[in-house]
Amino acid sequence: MTGSLLIIAAFMIIPLMVGVLSARQSQETSEDFFVQGRAMGSIAVFFTVAATWWSAFAFLGSNATFYTNGPVFLTALAWNLLFGFMYYWIGKRVWYLGKRFNYLTPSDLIGDFYNSEALRITVAVITLIFTVPYLQIQLTGGAYLIEVASGGLIPFWLAALLFYFIIIIYVWIGGIRAIAWTDVIYGALLFFGMMYAGYYISTQVGGPAALFSQLQQTSPEHLTMPGPNGTMGYPMWFSLFAITAIGAFMGPQIWLRMYSVKHGKLFNLMPFLLGLAAFAYVGSVLSGYSGVLLEPNVENPDQILPIMLMEYAPYLLASLIMAAGASAAMSTANSQIHAVSTVVTMDIYKRYVNREASQARIVYIGRLSLVGFSLAAYIMALTVPGVLVTIGIAALAGTAQLVIPTIGAITWKKAHPTAALAGLWAGVACVLLMTFGPLSAPFGYHAGIWGLLLNTVLFVGLSHGLHRRDTAVVERFTQARYDYDAEYHPERLPAYTQETTSAANYK
Amino acid sequence: MKYLTPLKLSIYSVMLFSFFMLESPVIMLANQIEPLLMGIPFLLVWNLFWWFVLTALFLVAYFTNWGSPTSTPESATKQH
């Protein structure tokens, strides 16, 4: 018991020290606090994107889903690849525009391109409202692990409180630089933990081949869709793939990790690195399925992994792996708290409360927002119950709606603000009504898929029917896109001469 | 299509095909336990195979600049 408490203490203290050390390089400017002066290097970018993207949803939710619903979570292999591809294809363009026009938040880019205050506010509200529940599940997942790893000595409420206390300290002093540095530790622990936990637990039933063979005899429905409960068929397979990847990618914490990158070339490599890392899900396959054989009657499936570790692994190893799981939660939570504080500070305080705020004042407000949002998530974790994956998907379905106006902003000069606004409102309303309201999502597809469909139809249809009069803004972005293609995709340049009726526009 | 290099077209075609094999209803054809390969259920093997194809493709894409030629100073200075 003492050993595991020491591991938990180290897990809390080491990132704190790393965060404090990283803060020595900080400057008291908003650009440094929020996007590290747009100078984040390749190792930090990979680890902070991967560790932010992989959360309690991945570490605990994946095991729980294999355990209760069969193989539907295998679609995670594809959604990681989609996430990686979007980071290259959308992320690199967002990064370029962010650098050129000095953006810090999602609202900055979308509000600027569509030249619309209503859209700017809508985007800020969507990012805030839908990020908090996702933040809540990180806290819940991490606190479960600490509670179990300490043998109940650290109760859930205290574990969650400790979690947020640590995060607030190092984000307060170091901003995104502290997060990126700690995420290198968290990321390494997380991938090691997932892989090794799966391998170790499967050896308790004779190894992976024996595991599948026994499962085929005792519970074959766990090995094919729609799973043992009959609810996780193809519609959910596709829904999880699209909503998880797009929703997480559009979260404000990932936007900041697009703006922070130093060199454009790094975006070219990220799809490969993020795709490769997805192999860690094989660990979840093994541990989730081993749970079906070893512990078939666990009441809360989100706790299947910690319960098995405590039962079948040496105590210290179990604690270490659970610390890895808590890393998954912590590395996402720290980034989310930092990101929502950025949105509050830049999109609300700086824009509508105090336009003349000094750099020091902006950073101070950012820090106060950290505390406020942490508190909200903490209260929600204690008072709003729910299964991690269910809450997570509902939250991701909301942020996923942002992808439509974003793609419009980076690729399409006809994209119209009214169309973007109508699409977003309809998409979000659809998600809310089908998740919490009287409507049910048709044909088994998740509400988020229907929201995206409605959003797309309205956006494309209305943009075709309406005409933008703010030609200066449209031309500014067309020029930026031209310059982007000139630098990274010169084969596309002839397309610009096709688009215009006057060749005189080109030198 | 008109402004794609042959290499870029190939990369994007293989990518779309691989995603189609993983995420279209075609996946339901692979939704079976047998044949087991090295003791691993077929659905898992199918997913791992296409995951490997896409991951390898992304590495090739990185080394080939995603099929785009590197920019020339002339094109980079043009203005709209």
From TrEMBL, chain A:
A single GO molecular-function term is: symporter activity
CDD domains documented for this protein = SLC5sbd
Tell me where in or outside the cell this protein is found. Answer: Cell membrane
Give yes or no: UniProt keyword Iron-sulfur.
no
Q: What is its main location?
A: membrane
| Any single biological process term in GO | sodium ion transport
Specify the domain of life of the species encoding this protein. Answer: Bacteria
- Kindly state which keywords UniProt assigns to this record, in alphabetical order: Cell membrane, Ion transport, Membrane, Sodium, Sodium transport, Symport, Transmembrane, Transmembrane helix, Transport
Residues that span the membrane, as ranges: 6-23, 43-60, 72-90, 118-137, 149-172, 184-202, 234-256, 268-292, 312-330, 362-381, 387-412, 419-437, 443-462
Does Cell membrane count among this protein's keywords? yes
GO CC terms for this protein? plasma membrane
For membrane topology, the record states: Multi-pass membrane protein
Q: Which reaction does it catalyse?
A: L-proline(in) + Na(+)(in) = L-proline(out) + Na(+)(out)
PANTHER family named in the record: SODIUM/PROLINE SYMPORTER-RELATED, SODIUM_PROLINE SYMPORTER
Q: Which family does it belong to?
A: Belongs to the sodium:solute symporter (SSF) (TC 2.A.21) family.
What name appears for this protein in its UniProt entry? Sodium/solute symporter
Source species of the chain: Vreelandella titanicae BH1
